[in-house]
Amino acid sequence: MSDPSIAPRIRFVLVGTQHPGNMGAAARAMKTMGLARLVLVAPEKPLDEDAFRRSAGAEDVLGDAPVVATLADAVADCTLVLGCTARARRVQLEELLPTVAAARVAAKAGEGAEVAIVFGRERTGLTNEELQLCHAAVHIPSDPAFSSLNLAAAVQVLAYEVRMRLLGDAATPVVEPGLREQPASHEQMESFFGQLGETLDEIEFHKGRAPESAMRKLRRLFLRSEPSEQEVRLLRGILADAQRMARLAHGDKK
Ligand code: SAH
């Protein structure tokens, strides 16, 4: 993580949660993404065995979460408050995609400010009054016909986006998966194309057509796929077998 002091300035606030298990699952979702500041606003029921079971190793995040009476109490010292809502364009608030929200959260926290991402009740979400306390709304662009994610799933999406932001360049893989092998050199590619040309002749692929046109297309195809040395060896093995078969066939004819 670029700056370890940023994550502790980002709090996830759950308002009026109805199922204790969801608070546990939310704590787990946060901890997997390196986020530990959970605040609970007037949960309907206190934390119970189910909540701690669902936290599955994030008992510290759950156990450390302060319980406060109102959303205003939970965000009193915050300079940026974003409210997550399952229904798009419900309020006269700017509506952000999770990626954009995470960028703003990370930028603000990076400046030293306290920031909050707020989640509503399972059944009814956030009230209009609660959304009025927010600087902007965040909507995960779900299917409008079935737009409501489970509370902890929504927490996971936001926590992931925040983590991706905080990781920054470190989140970009240096080596693309599947390209760990040494790419074939220009010389290896040219030898392969040479053998491919010979093979096409030997199997009488062109049948009177100009060989250049097919070769141009094949070169483009193989160069675009940037094969590794091993992949070129495999292709050349196949060509060698095709050549051997062609020679056998010619021999048979004679
Ligand atoms: N029936 C409620 C859904 C609540 S789901 C409603 O219509 O508002 C519980 C919480 O999860 C929501 O208050 C919100 O904070 C979050 N959430 C669920 N789906 C979401 C989505 N598509 N985008 C953003 N937040 C979402």
TrEMBL record:
Gene3D superfamilies: 1.10.8.590, 3.40.1280.10
InterPro entries xref list: Alpha/beta_knot_MTases, RNA_MeTrfase_TrmJ/LasT, SpoU_MeTrfase, tRNA_m1G_MTases_N
E.C. no: 2.1.1.200
One of the record's GO cellular component terms: cytosol
NCBIfam families assigned: rRNA_methyl_1
Assembly description: Homodimer.
Protein name per the record: tRNA (cytidine/uridine-2'-O-)-methyltransferase TrmJ
Source organism per UniProt: Stenotrophomonas chelatiphaga
